[in-house]
Design a protein that fits this description.
Strand order of the largest sheet: 2-1-6-5
Order of helices and strands: HHHEEEEHEE
Distance between the termini: 15 Å
Shape: globular
Helix content: 25-40%
Radius of gyration: 15 Å
Strand content: 15-25%
Number of strands: 6
Oligomer: single chain
């Protein structure tokens, strides 16, 4: 996800298939929505009730797939930073967030740099949830 958060629009176009596809209309069309909510129910950190609003339209038109990916990455980055200052509610083992958000070399928990965006799911109405992979290499 780090690459999604720091790359320019042109670089995202080369990284993502369909990066310029206008998907904002399709995401909100069924319910006539202008904005959706991303929830991040991370194991052990559910008590934070993390949500991030995502506008489906920009000043230049509907959100593109690349813009959505960047928004998701920034939301996860904010979540990791915030949750790293909170204790988990249970023994989360391998799901623990690295202290201070960590870095790639962190061995004490999951850092933002280890997250890979895999999919995005509409769970109910305007609520969406991202499926992420943790690269443990």
């Amino acid at each position: 996800m780090r690459e999604l958060a720091v790359r320019s629009g042109g670089a995202l176009e080369r990284m993502l298939v369909g990066a310029t596809d206008h998907i904002g209309v399709a995401m909100g069309k069924a319910l006539g929505l202008q904005r959706v909510r991303l929830i991040i129910p991370w194991p052990g950190y559910e008590h934070l009730e993390w949500t991030a609003p995502i506008n489906l339209f920009t000043s230049s038109g509907p959100l593109t797939r690349g813009q959505l990916a960047a928004h998701l990455a920034l939301a996860f980055q904010s979540f990791i930073v915030k949750s790293s200052t909170h204790a988990p509610t249970s023994n989360v083992g391998s799901w623990r967030i690295a202290v201070g958000g960590g870095n790639l070399a962190s061995t004490t928990g999951i850092s933002f740099e280890r997250l890979v965006l895999f999919a995005l799911w509409n769970v109910c109405d305007d609520v969406w949830m991202a499926e992420v992979f943790v690269d443990r290499r």
